[in-house]
Amino acid sequence: MTFPQTRMRRLRRTGALRALVRETSLEPGDLILPLFFDPALKEPEAVASMPGVQRYPVAEAANLARLAVAARLGGVILFGQAREKGPDAPDALAPDAAVPEALRRMRAAAPDLLLIADVCLCAYTDHGHCGVAGDGEIENDPSLELLARTAVNYARAGADVVAPSDMMDGRVAAIRRALDEASLGDRAILSYAAKYASAFYGPFRDAQASAPRFGDRRSYQMDPANSREAMREIALDLEEGADLVLIKPALAYLDVVREARGRFDAPLGAYNVSGEYSALKAAALMGWIDERAAVLETLQSMRRAGADFILTYHALDAAAWLA
Ligand code: PBG
Fold first, then answer.
1. Residue 270 Cβ < 6 Å to ligand 1
2. Please, where are the H alpha helices in 131-273?
3. Under CATH, which architecture does the 26-215+225-322 domain have?
4. Which end of the chain has less Cβ packing within 10 Å, N or C?
């Protein structure tokens, strides 16, 4: 049936009709807020390349947890700065480092808040890579034990979910085994299964002081040209015991999100990364774009592509707009 029998505008005539036929939803509970904790700070400090984002002292953790609950967010994901960096990422394993300390305070302040801890070594190693370095290369297998011990450190401190973002082969299995051995078999793994070597992480590395000191991350993060490879990565991580999987970045990879949604039944997330955030923020600050409309449209696109949940620095703003 074609025009005039079919008139697509009939279902767009009123807000009630538009709401009835809306195909995807976007709610605060779909959003996970990334938080940066820095043990060197006494006061929150703005991240210059991420307007509206701050690095927090651990003392702010309880307040932030209450804020996340009040905004009805789906949860938070914690990133930490090291007190001291070293080749073996000493502060990633320390029970009194920023992340475990913040986890304990957040858990005490908000017993029901979902706490996710990012598991990676790049903010903890002196060379800024996500694994152990030997001879100018990032060594896969020696990195696994460190990553697994880091995950156990965070799970012990109260993380419901540990989220390895390093892209070493076999890390999900190593973490699953270590959690089970530590009687933490009830904690979930959110694997950054398909993480691309992206230009959109720039502002994050600024926030986290985690840029590599030599080379780049292309020997472990994925080539942006590939999507079939992403499906292999996801399948492997699920076989190794991942409970939830993540695709990162989100906006330039919505086709990958869509393809993964069609192939896998596991819960699927998209990481709306720092560069995506800052690009929109900058345009909004220049007055070139309507921030609220553009942010909500962007987040909706990730849900439409098939993401169950979204990690985004816009989480608190978006939750307020959606409320
Ligand atoms: C650490 C990590 C990165 C991000 C999350 N975890 C950066 C990187 O791989 O260099 C990026 C997040 C963002 O850009 O918002 N491996």
1. no
2. 140-156, 171-181, 202-208, 228-240, 254-263
3. Alpha-Beta Barrel (3.20)
4. N
